[in-house]
Amino acid sequence: MKDTKRSLSKGLKAFTQNEYFGHFIFWTLLYILFLRLHDFTNSIPAGLIEELLNILFFAVIVYFNILYLIPKYLKKHKVFQYVSLLVFSCLLITPIKAVVFSIWNNNNPDIKMAFSEMSVLQSFFLSSFFLGGASTIYQIINDWVVHQREKQELENRNLESELNFLKSQINPHFLFNTLNNLYALTLKKSDEAPATVLKLSEMMRYMLYECNEDRVPLYKEVTYLRNYLELEKLRQGKNIEIDFELQGEIGTQMIAPLMFIPFIENSFKHGVSNHLSSGYIDIKMNIEDSRIQLDVENSKASSMPTGHLNGKKSGGIGLSNIKKRLSLLYPKKYNLDIDDQPNKYRVSLNLNLN
After folding, report:
1. How far apart are the C-alpha atoms of 37 and 246, rounded to whole Å?
2. Higher per-residue pLDDT: 19 or 121
3. Do residue 202 and residue 327 come from a single domain?
4. What is the tally of structural domains in the chain?
């Protein structure tokens, strides 16, 4: 029963959104309007048929204009020919309409004679030209709406394709780095290798199955960060001090996947990894409802020039992609500051998830 109602509802919605249904409603309302203005003194059936004939003549002008004149001339910017032919069409149909109405009122000589008067002919011409012009305005607006809809659909498809391409670049990038971490542990024959494999398994599950969604729960993104940092702590040893501080509550917030990891991964790959002895990475995340403040600061080797972490040499796929994803997914809803100094590098991201 529910499926039947749902099918009927969908069918009714599709029918009411159909262009032909809109035309049917327009002519029906116009016919009702003409009936309200008609004088039914002589005969009600005759009046109903007369106004129906009136509607048919108007429909001839309107659809001749929409189906032939506009595509053939107006859309090809032949404005003068278009206007001339529209006027000529109205002039041509005016006497034909007058003759048909005269024949219809053959039994009423007074009414029949009225259709040969100039004022009536002028009224026929002006009403036909007015409705023809109105149909031109309607078609222009309709074409513009259709064009905007198609343009928006194309932009949405392009956006979706671009985001999917960016994510396809990000996932292998992180996977390769994580495998390198595991490889380093196996070389050391560390007892922590099984726990590392488990964390790697969780990370791969997140990347392969859950990151395909447009939005993921924030707590899963944070769990992914924690796993990544635990792997890095094992790989880096005691030479690098890694600190992650989380403030605020994680509730039902949703976020685009893999938004934060490029900043953190970049700090390891191009920051502390260049140190010979020691270094640090300090990560702070503050969550207030739908707003997130992420600060990532890492030490730099004194030999690294300023700007190295901010350019293509350091960012590679990660930073360039995350900047592009931010602009695509959260336009005007984020603020990204990068402070590159001789001995440290700091990234500050303020993101509004709504």
Report:
1. 74
2. 121
3. yes
4. 2
